[in-house]
Amino acid sequence: MVRLVDIQVVRADTLSADSLGNRSVEQPVYGSRGDIVDANGVVLAGTVMRYNITLSPRNAVEFTRTTAAGDQTVTVAQAAAEVGAITGQTGDAILAIISSSLAADPASDYAIVTKAVDVSVFRAVDALEIPWIYFEKKPGRVYPDGAVAGNLVGFVSSEGEAQAGLELGQDSCLASTNGTETYEKGADGVRLPQSTVTEKAAVDGGDVVTTIDSDLEWFVQQALAKQAQATGAAWGTVVVQEVKTGKLVAVADYPSVDPNNVNGTANPDDRGSRAFTASFEPGSTFKALTAASVLDAGKATVGTKITAPYRYLPGNGANINDSSGHADLHLTLTGVLIESSNTGMSKFGELLTDQQRYDYMTKFGLGTATEAGFPAEDSGILHPYDEWDPQTKYATMFGQGLTTTALQIASIYQTIANKGVRLPVQLVAGCRQADGTMTNVPAATGTQVVSASAANDTSEMLEMVYQKAWLSKVWNIPGYRVASKTGTAQMPDGHGGYTKGYLVSVSGFAPADDPEYVVSVSLADPVKLNSSAAPAPIFQEVMSQVLKKYRAVPSGAPAPALPGTW
């Protein structure tokens, strides 16, 4: 009687708490990581439920299985073999997990058999009804479109930790908050039915809504890969940007990465987006910026005349030459762009002070990363003007002596196409919360970099380049006025000099009479065709598809005829 009172009254609370502690098990409840979607809601990165298969080593004993044929005794070895046949392991390997766990701790109640199996494996193992086998739910990441936008989306580790791309850059939006739940188990370690209690609810992550059109992204990646392989390029990028919004509708890289199989991409540099992270000397595509700056400052017009020699030796000691020998050329500013003359552009560029040119370049966005917020985005290199040596003073007029990213070049052309107003570069439209509200919406306020008239004059000169330059037949797009410019720049060797390879590019926009889209293409060291003829077919193919896909209205009146020579 005294013993009964002692147990049920005097020590009841203490014994109950101790008992619950011995049979109560706490485990995490995983929230779902948010999706990454394209502008149309297509899922580029999503979450699916995965399962860790675990066991209780101390409770791993033979058991009785009831079947239609009657009760069967199942040994530990047989159960291990059954599980292994489903998970792809041997029965001996699973027995080794049990024995090693017991060797380390004879009371061991937890060991992992395998991690992150899909629902089909979970169901097959669960159907075996092995009483000492358990399951832990754990969300896993899946990328339905594989390498399409893989360079942008990025990837997570096997533990679900963000590693690259938007997965990393937008982790604060995507990340979920785990909760906890407890359940009670019997002496045999089996969970007691209806004993689960949620202690803390899990919170799912938000969805990252990008500006990318996944269908166009696929097309652009295919066009880029085909030409890059045909020309033997080391790598390449294509950027497609909306002129009037600053939104990126496609950013393609070659080679790209499939986030479902990151280890299948041997070169770590191929796992990111070089469009954001690799800066280079842009070459002659940069001449459009110098021309727009000179026009805006009122130092020249589209018809201002100069004489462009093959070699120009200005008074400060610099030495400038064109890409191939020629007699003196009598060119207008328009003609300088058509002929892509370094010496001619130098004569126009020197009409501005170094500070004026530097200020224009910074207003165009050079020297700073874009507003896209992509992880590890390169800012490019733009040295202060008071640090320029004599050669750099002139080299920066025609796209050398500084570096830019593919995104920065696209932004320069977006500014010219948009009447001189530079818009923030957008890759992410915002973070969509569970209730549908959008947060982290980027600012869309533009900056007037050059006047509308200077931008329009530059656009018309670039139309003359499109019509009269040596690639006019290669990049022709019937029915539309197009403004474009090529570039060929030496590639640095990393030791203060240059390699024998070139980075070749084409940038432009259309329809030039009412610009809607910028396309900028770059190929690094295309050894089989080391000139702007290599990227031109990509520009033509991508721009044609963009205009067709988005039903751009064909141009009406022809482009103004601007004289290139005098």
Automatic annotation (TrEMBL):
Keywords: Membrane. InterPro entries: Beta-lactam/transpept, Beta-lactam/transpept-like, PBP_dimer, PBP_dimer_sf, PCN-bd_Tpept. It is found in: Membrane. It comes from the Bacteria. The keyword Cytoplasm does not apply. Residues 236-543 form the Penicillin-binding protein transpeptidase domain. Its main location: membrane. The keyword Amino-acid biosynthesis does not apply. Pfam families: PBP_dimer (PF03717), Transpeptidase (PF00905). Residues 29-193 form the Penicillin-binding protein dimerisation domain. Belongs to the transpeptidase family. This is Penicillin-binding protein 2. It comes from Cryobacterium breve.
